[in-house]
Amino acid sequence: MATRNLLLLPGDGIGPEAMAEVRKLITAMNEKLGTGFATEEGRVGGSAYDAHGQAISDADMAKAMAADAVLFGAVGGPKWDAVPYEVRPEAGLLRLRKDMELFANLRPAICYPALASSSSLRQEVVEGLDILIVRELTGGVYFGEPKQIIDLGNGQKRGIDTQVYDTFEIERISGVAFELARTRQNRVTSMEKRNVMKSGVLWNEVVTATHKAKYADVKLDHMLADAGGMQLVRWPKQFDVIVTDNLFGDMLSDVAAMLTGSLGMLPSASLGAPDGVTGKRKALYEPVHGSAPDIAGQGIANPIAMIASFAMCLRYSFNMVAEADRLEAAIAAVLDDGLRTKDIMSEGKTEVGTTAMGDAIIAKF
Amino acid sequence: MATRNLLLLPGDGIGPEAMAEVRKLITAMNEKLGTGFATEEGRVGGSAYDAHGQAISDADMAKAMAADAVLFGAVGGPKWDAVPYEVRPEAGLLRLRKDMELFANLRPAICYPALASSSSLRQEVVEGLDILIVRELTGGVYFGEPKQIIDLGNGQKRGIDTQVYDTFEIERISGVAFELARTRQNRVTSMEKRNVMKSGVLWNEVVTATHKAKYADVKLDHMLADAGGMQLVRWPKQFDVIVTDNLFGDMLSDVAAMLTGSLGMLPSASLGAPDGVTGKRKALYEPVHGSAPDIAGQGIANPIAMIASFAMCLRYSFNMVAEADRLEAAIAAVLDDGLRTKDIMSEGKTEVGTTAMGDAIIAKF
Ligand SMILES: CC(C)[C@H](C(=O)O)[C@@H](O)C(=O)O
Ligand SMILES: CC(C)[C@H](C(=O)O)[C@@H](O)C(=O)O
Fold it and tell me: Where is this site: Important for catalysis (chains A, B) (predicted)?
């Protein structure tokens, strides 16, 4: 079996603790199943800055480009609030996304049945929720130029960011959304602010044309992004796949994640285009939650989102569908057994730490 | 008593039906209290486009500039989906905001006790909720240039919008937020994406400096806007006043409005700077809900948001605090009596139409 090359970037805060559980899982899989995963390690975020003054080094970027998949923990924390903008922790993640051309960010918002009662929404609103947000990840206001602060004199400064989308960028991200919808409920809702933004007008136009040309079998709706945020709160089950731009995707996927009451459980995948020859696509997998510096180092972080991100990696980077299914079932099983980390603890359940949660999932796998 | 000049712009969809109730209320107040309101009428949105091909005419703009306050219904609907971008219904609203320099948009998200059970959130999460979102309304990506679609040839187009903020714009909107916080719980949370946007870096810097220079007695926190969206869903009562930019404010205030379960009830005020001589400020009041074309013309729209917007008008434009309080109390009273329009109807309550709801509120006033 060909070696499967993984780069592990634990990052900051609870990232390393969560990643440790995935490392154990990988070792166990290699031993029991001969899966042949080879791992390398790298630095990203504040811990990279502390080590060498960059949010990610060129050497680690080269490893990321060469790996079959990157597993990413989390970055950031108050410790680095005052570092220069160019080397702030997030710059490492943004460079990975941009240089690896990871334009498609898949963010499932799933409400685990065992956790429906821990959502701030009524149980009937979120129970059984299973939506997928497909967020454009390498364009828009995140990367558009000019992006700068100008000193105007007189004590006045001007902050500028530029939202830019080209036809091909909208075409390829909507293609991903339509393809994924076909494996689900076959419905896509595209969100933008075409009533205010020219990029929204183009977004709407290109999604509509892509649908007509290649995916007319999929049901397509358009919604203004602000109304979309409202509808996510009102009745999220109306959605199947949502496709939207980088900034709206950032906001909407966070709202959707919080709806489920399962923030510590939600994974994401960031994918590039398939290589024309090998069909392989660059990929990075990361939990939706952040670095949670307030609870870092205490052994209480929930490792499930990181482990579920590895399940997405098995599915999308290695086509190990059976193993991905089994890993997701193992997560559901420990929850059914009543195991809970602190963030999802409720009465009558058994509170466990990061390591015990990881061990329990590996044992069920 | 000096005449109080109001311009009424009912607009599209349910706008005219809701405005009709305010018109009745104004007549009743003039008769009973001698309030001396003089009203003019104008067109905005799709109905203005139908009448004369513009989303608002220069003549109506002149009336708006001259009025003491503008009452605005709602604009838009599928009928005008295909009209050119420059004259789409929303362009009328955006021109009003820009030309009147209404930079401060106040959006209270209040959960009426009688309606806590109609939220999609758990009752304990929203009961008693009372937050105020202060949204910058004349800057940011809504108005920044360049804003255009360029044809690149080869079937490729490029959509561009520009997010721009100058120091003085951030200073004046945060000043409004701090002032209002002093009349409430004295806490402000500022939201931006400084980890991705240069305008966010400047925003954070200027809010911090404004606080230090003039409002150090107010408690100030900073939150990333995506995390802010999450926190609004998780535990909205943690907030008092939220200050944020035009686009984040659009998204976050809609999410906040939906939390309350009272979307048909929520008013907003858009204010300019006080005139240096008279102290008067230009102002426009509008419901948070949209034109709801699906239910327009059926006499079932909820007029409360429009009436509550008029209450804000009494408070902010005419300093008629007692009358504003009484009007808000009248709204609460009819809800306590069990009257409900269709959008907020629940078991055991009495369903009434738009007119009956308006009449009931006027009778209690
Ligand atoms: C860390 C930050 C740069 C990032 C983003 O804004 O994209 C995060 O919020 C996310 O959603 O992955
Ligand atoms: C109608 C539209 C232009 C407007 C906006 O985006 O500001 C609306 O959504 C609002 O929030 O008032």
Answer: 142, 193
CA gap A309, A326 in Å, rounded: 14
**Are B185 and B153 a contacting pair, CB within 8 Å?**
no
pTM > 0.85: yes
Tell me what the mean pLDDT of segment A332-356 comes to: 96
CA A195 to ligand 2 center in whole angstroms: 8
Q: Please, are residues B63 and B42 in contact by the beta-carbon 8 Å criterion? A: yes
Domains along the sequence of chain A with CATH? 1-103+275-365 (3.40.718.10), 105-271 (3.40.718.10)
Share of chain A above pLDDT 70, in %: 99
3-state secondary structure chain B: CCCEEEEEEEECCCHHHHHHHHHHHHHHHHHHHCCCEEEEECCCCHHHHHHHCCCCCHHHHHHHHHCCEEEEEECCCHHHCCCCHHHCHHHHHHHHHHHCCCCEEEEEEECCHHHHHHCCECHHHHCCCEEEEEEECCCHHHCEEEEEEEEEECCEEEEEEEEEEEHHHHHHHHHHHHHHHHCCCCEEEEEECCCCCHHHHHHHHHHHHHHHHHCCCCEEEEEEHHHHHHHHHHCHHHCCEEEECHHHHHHHHHHHHHHCCCHHHCEEEEECCCCCCCCCCCEEEEECCCCCHHHCCCCCCCCHHHHHHHHHHHHHHCCCHHHHHHHHHHHHHHHHCCEECHHHCCCCCEECCHHHHHHHHHHHC
Q: What is the pLDDT of residue A2?
A: 66
Is B336 an annotated catalytic residue? no
Alpha helices (H) in chain A, listed in sequence order: 15-33, 46-52, 58-66, 89-99, 123-126, 167-182, 198-214, 225-234, 246-259, 304-317, 321-336, 354-364
Average of per-residue pLDDT values in chain A: 96
Interface contact flag, B156 A166, Cβ < 8 Å: yes
Residue B118: pLDDT band (50, 70, 90) is: confident
Cα of A101 vs centre of ligand 1, distance in Å, is 16
User: What does the DSSP 8-state code read for residue A309?
Assistant: H
Q: Among partner residues B88, B120, B142, which is closest to A233 by beta-carbon distance?
A: B120
Summarised one tens digit per residue, pLDDT across range A266-302 is 999 999 999 999 989 999 999 999 999 999 999 999 9
Span A62-103, pLDDT tens digits: 999 999 999 999 999 999 989 999 999 999 999 999 999 999
pLDDT recorded at residue B2 = 66
Q: Whose CA is nearest to atom 8 of ligand 1?
A: A250
- Please give the pLDDT value at position B191: 98
Q: Quick check: bond before B146 cis, omega within 30? A: yes
| Pairwise CA distance, residues A113 & A110, whole Å | 9
Task: Give me the pLDDT at residue B347, please.
Answer: 92
